[in-house]
């Protein structure tokens, strides 16, 4: 009897030590339920596969997003600048067309108001005006005075033309604003048909669900 009892006890101990097949399946299911939506969202966003025709975005999606990390800009001192370097930020890249005339100035004003309304989150966003030729001292001074958080950068005319072509959309004007994600991809485009409230709605949602370092 004692031998039988010992054998029974040993069998129970072995069963307890052995992983349960059901427990393993449940663990895999939990991990999959977390990872699969993230992977699916990444594939949909960066490839356009499965993208629904109706979205909650106010801007026009670029499908696929345009990688501008390899484009070299220059700052006011002529030093090279790559947007993928440095602290990760969301960026508004303003493309003025032939010159920064009335439509460009309106976009600058709209983006400035959005930047102000972001309040404490404003540091996570940067605004840049891209020009093909250097601005005059008077133009730069006016922009610094009216748009103190605006960064002025240059790009060679042929590179700027290529960027315009890569981000061209049928219903978006040549003078436009590109929303650049933290990884350096142009993902949405806006023009003066979009209101400041629409820009603000998009960027607030993106800031809410994106990381901050």
UniProtKB/TrEMBL annotation:
**Key word Transmembrane present:** yes
Membrane spanning segments where?
Answer: 21-45
Q: Lineage from the top down?
A: Bacteria, Pseudomonadati, Pseudomonadota, Gammaproteobacteria, Cellvibrionales
Mind listing the UniProt keywords for this protein, alphabetically? Answer: Membrane, Transmembrane, Transmembrane helix
Protein name per UniProt: Cytochrome oxidase Cu insertion factor, SCO1/SenC/PrrC family
